[in-house]
Design goal:
The chain is of the alpha+beta class. It has helices at about 25-30, 35-40, 45-50, 70-75, 95-100; strands at about 10-15, 20-25, 50-55, 55-60, 80-90. The strands form two sheets. A three-stranded antiparallel sheet has the order 2-1-3. Strands 4-5 form a two-stranded antiparallel sheet.
Amino acid sequence: MSFVPGNQQRHLRACMVCSIVQVQQRFIREGCPNCETFLGLQNHPESVQECTSQVFEGLITLADPSKSWVAKWQRLDGYVPGVYAVKVVGQLSEETIQNIEDAGGRYVPRDGTVHDDDA
């Protein structure tokens, strides 16, 4: 994530799948750098609205997620370097969760809820 001017901070959104934080227009223009293969956010503003949230807490900057204990703790290892939210408020639709699973991914809610099979 590059520098975000103060007047653009209100346009920040966090991906509900991987929790990367970017401005809304970047999600629309480039998609999610971690989840694009199964979310398909690029050039789909309605998908950006459904799969990202303006409500998130805390920020973590990761330069090398593969070597960071914080990345492992937050389940971010394997993702691209960038700025990530600690907690993202919002829920994905069942259809989106099914698309993630059909693509071989595993959805871990970023809102602090824990499913029985996550424990």
